[in-house]
Amino acid sequence: MAIVVVHDQGSASPREVIALGRTAPVLVALADSDHARQVGPLFEENCAGVVTLAEGDEAVVARLREYGAAGILTFSERMLADTARLAGLLGLPFNTPETVRVLTDKAAQRRRLREAGVDSVRSALLTDAEGWHAALTEVGLPAVVKPVRGEGSRNTVLVTDPEHGAAVVEEFLRAEPALVVEEFLRGADCAPFGDYVSVESAVTPGGIRHFAVTGKLPLAPPFRESGQFWPSQLAPGPEAEVVGLADRALRALGVTHGLVHTEIKLTAAGPRLIEVNGRLGGDQTDLAARSLGLDLVALAGELALGRDVELNPARPERVHFQYYTPGPTAGGRLTRVDGQAAVRALPGVDSYRLSVRPGTELAAGTGTTLLDMLCGSAADHRGMTALVEQAVALLAYEFVVDGRPVTRTARDLLDHV
User: Fold this and answer.
1) Whole-model pTM?
2) Which CATH class is domain 188-315?
3) Fold entry, domain 320-415
């Protein structure tokens, strides 16, 4: 009984995918991408079998059947549709193509949630710049403009005036086939924490099981993540509200299988849905392992094989967190990072590593490009925020922009676009 992992860049690293071999033999179906080609040799050396989607469905399905494929999953947002298609051809359990469509198409997801009475965020689909004013009339300002399909806050901006919005739409549609314009959800004052959380869920043969609510550090402008932590800062009542909203959303979207990551905005009027993602959330594997000894990749493998799982994790005794420094939206070549040793020496820091090597050219844009990741723990949420602030004060980054060196502190990168 082997597990097929349809692989591209996503929420599980190649080494975590390989470690899934402790659950069952792993078969890797590689995307046609630079990342997949780069890690292909590692999978060929360590997994039971490797196929490439470029071979075509008929050849891929035949080979996976020969290998004894008994379950299928993906940790990559961009591979959900391919996984659903292959699951259908192989006769393996997975979310249906229609469910995957509403999980990956933000406009379709908003429409389905509105029709089901789960959440009524105003939104409009845009396929050409001429539709901007009609969308503006429907949604109002301020509004968020983002791709219909995408991840990591790529090409996601806040629009506060019609002229700016028209320019943004025209620019983004040069690179995107379609955009969604959404009502801006104004967050409540949650300082020093972020004004949103995520709910982590497992959809099992026995039903939906929500196993964690992830707290967030404040977003860097415009909508770039800077960190997350277990457990969340929410009291039991508000936490139950966000879990209930996530549960209703999963049922409305028809999710029947696998791990799900639901982002929820905390507003003065109550929780509102940001989006539902039909896969494991980014960097959740580290939080789960450090705080509860929970292996989420293995859990995903068990679900792929159709096995029920019991998930009643205790609330972590300490606050386990991740902090990331977002890259500059203007781009540039990273040349050095100062303060690394001092950060690693801070009490409570488990690890600090660079996500981008010096010498890397960073593309300009509003997406979340993470320069590094700090992992640590503290006795409580106050201790966590104090430790993060200590680390932020120590870190500085040098870039070359337009041929000139520019030094930016971590605080500067967090506070400014």
Assistant:
1) 0.95
2) alpha beta
3) Aldehyde Oxidoreductase; domain 3 (3.90.1170)
